[in-house]
Amino acid sequence: MYKISKQFSFSASHVLDLLEKEHPCARMHGHNYVVTVHLKSETLDAYGFVKDYKALKIVKQYIDETLDHRHLNDRIPGAPTSENIARFIYEKFKPEIPELYAVEVSETPQTSCIYEP
Question: Which of 14, 31, 38, 107 is catalytic?
C-alpha cells in the first residue's frame, strides 16, 4: 500500500456555542488550522504516483476561497469542531479524489483530529 499526504493551512474563527458559557471555546475565537489530506492506493499510476500533488490544488483553492479568514459557524454544518471540519472536508473531496482515505485537522501544534470513515 502506498500512502501520501499533503498539508494546507488557513486561519478562521468559530464559536462552540453548545458548550457552557464559562468554557473559553464558547466565546468567539480563532485558530491557525492545518489540514492534512491522506491518500492511499495499492497501485501507482503511469507516472509512478498515488496522485500527482498538483492535482490536490483543488483542496487548496477550496480552503482559500471558502474557509480562510471566515467564521466557520457560517460554513460548517453543525458545531465547527475539528472533528466536524475534518469530516466536512473529507465528504467534499472524496468524490473527486477517490484515493482520499482520511482528513486530519489541527487547531494547535499540540492537537489534531483524524476523520477516517
Answer: 107
Is the pTM here over 0.85, yes or no? yes
Q: Is 25 a catalytic residue?
A: yes
**Catalytic one of 23, 69, 91, 116:** 69
Average pLDDT over residues 75-80: 96
CATH top class, domain 2-115: alpha beta
Is the separation of the CB atoms in 73 and 38 below 8 Å?
Answer: no
Q: Where are the domains of the chain?
A: 2-115
pLDDT at 8: 98
- Answer yes or no: 31 catalytic: no
Is 96 an active-site residue? no
Sheet containing strand 29-41, strands side by side? 70-71, 2-14, 29-41, 100-108, 111-115
